Amino acid sequence: MRFPFLAALLVPSLLTAEDLGWFKGNTHTHSLWSDGNDFPDMIAAWYKEKGYDFLCLSDHNTLNAGDKWVTEASIEKKKIALGPNVLGKYRQRYGDDWVETRTNDRGELEVRLKTLEEYRKKLEEPGKYLLVQAEEVSASFGKAPIHINAVNLTEVIQPKKDVQTIRETLRQNLQMIAEQAVKTGRPIIAHVNHPNFRWALTADDLAHVIEDRFFEIYNGHPGIYYAGEASRVDSDHERIWDIANTIRLAELNQPPLFGMSTDDSHHYHGGSSTSGRGWVMVRAAKLDANSLVEAMQRGDFYGSSGVTLEDMSFDKNTRTLRLKIKGEAGVKYHTEFRGTLKNYDRAVKEVDAPAEDPQPKRLQHGADIGKVLVSSNSLEPSYTMTGDELYVRAIVISDQVMTNPPQPDHVQKAWTQPVGWQK
């Protein structure tokens, strides 16, 4: 099968609600294996202590495998904070029996980075905490970064750069990830990261690269520009998602994108790109890498930056999407059910992009794409489709600012996946 993810969509689940549980995880995290500024075992311990069920260390173009030594000087250069040094914190937590050091030919102190297989033995607990192998496959086309997180890998993937166009570069890297899934016989998801990082990707790019099935609706790095900007039309992430899904369903006869929420954390000693800002809640039969990935391939998950859902369901008979929000005292919640109607305005206007934009032109789509169909302030909001919609999705918006927000106006939210599009 050319697109192995379709198998998970086409095979009906025999599991009941009682067989499933919710698992909290982050799929986008960086360590000293690439451009993060802490040891992977320190990072993995933080997520475990904060109540996450699973974590993917996704360093750029490498797995946490092999023999790698880094100098203490290079580690401290990455640190952004006062206080105990990074190596000192590491030794304090794990002790000298775990921390391996040596002096190189230049007289510099080096530290060996632990591999995933080593630190998972120290931190994993069956049914309680899982570490999943991942990689941020980091390519580019010209000045446009094209980054894709591949989750549940067995082998490193070397990216293809500058392949004809932005879309073709994106397509060929996604195909390599899909080929590993076929080769190994294990489910792998690939999510396209931060379309607004250096304004690399548009909704039309994500729509027409049909090998893609996942993208980051939310990324906690402050340089990602979730809300877009006025000089770049249709550039906020919500518009990107709805435009891409509308084009896929109405024009290309392809499944929609599912939305991830992630940290993209790099800084663990102060700094701007920190942990705990975005995550996914996956409903799966067990805390197992294959089960988690298969659940996400089915769309049985939601993204969050602070809002928790006790339940979400779509009744295929009544065509009703229902949510149950876990309310907190004194907090108000507003749910928007968004979608595009089949008779939407298909007119597109070509608009000049800013001079530094990797996109020479941007396309402005009709305002009725992804419009709010119904809104609710209930803790148990629902929407019943009329038959006029291409799809519907929900975004739950809290009136509480996120814990440690990347931008001051970022409030806690949750995003469900588009439903009602299946034939």
CATH superfamily descriptor of the largest domain: Metal-dependent hydrolases
> Which architecture name of the largest domain does CATH use?
Alpha-Beta Barrel
Shape: globular
Q: Could you give a short account of the major beta sheet? A: 13 strands, mixed
What's the CATH first level of the largest domain? Alpha Beta
CATH topology of the largest domain: TIM Barrel
Outline of the structure:
By secondary structure, the chain is an alpha+beta fold. 22% of the residues lie in helices and 29% in strands.
3D structure, described in words:
- The chain is α+β, with helices and mostly antiparallel strands and 423 residues long.
- The protein has helices at residues 5-10, 40-49, 72-78, 86-94, 116-123, 166-184, 203-208, 237-252, 289-298; strands spanning 21-26, 54-57, 69-71, 101-103, 109-112, 130-141, 144-151, 189-192, 214-219, 258-262, 279-284, 301-304, 309-315, 320-325, 333-341, 349-352, 361-364, 371-376, 382-384, 389-401, 411-415.
- The strands form four sheets. It has a 13-stranded mixed sheet, with helices on both faces. A three-stranded antiparallel sheet has the order 3-5-4. A three-stranded antiparallel sheet has the order 13-14-19, with no helix packed on it.
- Strand 9 (214-219), helix 8 and strand 10 (258-262) form a beta-alpha-beta unit.
- Helix 2 runs parallel beside helix 5 (116-123).
- The longest helix has 19 residues, at 166-184.
- The protein is globular and about 70 Å long.
Identify the notable features of this structure and list them briefly.
423 residues, 2 domains, 13-stranded mixed β-sheet, globular, disordered N terminus
